[in-house]
């Protein structure tokens, strides 16, 4: 497609507002960035490339399973992802969107792609912990957040009122706590937790946070799922390049299109022949953690044990408090299912994190 044809294609579409400066798609197409703040140069450049028909894009993986690496994805993959999300939420041309994620990462880039492919009115703002603090009574059709942002906004009356003005919310980047899930269930709009990875250019499945019981992820239209003998999930989707992608995520497949996420296969702890999923247990003890170690980062892992093979331990960021630790372990044993109580607590002053902000367990424990 020529630039002239693209000019006609985008001539009647809405605009993208970077901070306080608004641009029509045609202005972006022509590279007219007068009044653009320097902090939005990269995002504007991505939109310019997109509107001018660029076919391949380089994305960086999150670093969750190893060192971050660059991968190349096609324009078609990004379009298919945007189409599937639009179909899932039944969003229309001209819908209003807010991007408050890092646009150098895939989640932020996909917000830009969705806006351009949907013909939406998008506002791009910096990825702050409380991105809605300056937005008053603005009704928004679609927003993506990370859990930290939602937690911050739900903690204030003004933040909650702002969230109540949003029709569709997706939350990704990390699992949310049962406490936060309970809070967002009271919001009037739709609220979903995402499941996906860089290789699938954002989410391929969504879980309704308002439904009771185990969090069930439903695949987007056109996504196929299967598991291997270890119950590790494989994904076949147009946004993933239309090939089967093997993950390290252990799931309970509920149907051809739905699953319950259990945890990562490389994190499984085999304690006395019983397979324990640390991420699942972390959800169970989140309320207990908020009482004894409020605001502290933590994770569960296995350590060598002479009789069990591996013993489950709790790793907490911060300076140790022995009396508090003893009380916590005693309480955990009294309320958690058998085998789910950690045998000990390891305190580490400062956790290592990946470039995407997730806890880097291997580097943290290597210290």
Automatic annotation (TrEMBL):
Start and end of every AMP-dependent synthetase/ligase domain? 61-249
For this UniProt record, the keywords arranged alphabetically read as follows: Ligase
Query: What InterPro entries does the record point to?
Result: AMP-bd_C_sf, AMP-dep_synth/lig_dom, ANL_N_sf
Q: Which GO terms describe its biological process?
A: fatty acid metabolic process
Q: What sections of the sequence does the record tag as coiled-coil?
A: none
Give the family, as the similarity comment puts it: Belongs to the ATP-dependent AMP-binding enzyme family.
Q: Which PANTHER family match?
A: ACYL-COA SYNTHETASE, MEDIUM-CHAIN ACYL-COA LIGASE ACSF2, MITOCHONDRIAL
Q: What is this protein called?
A: AMP-dependent synthetase and ligase
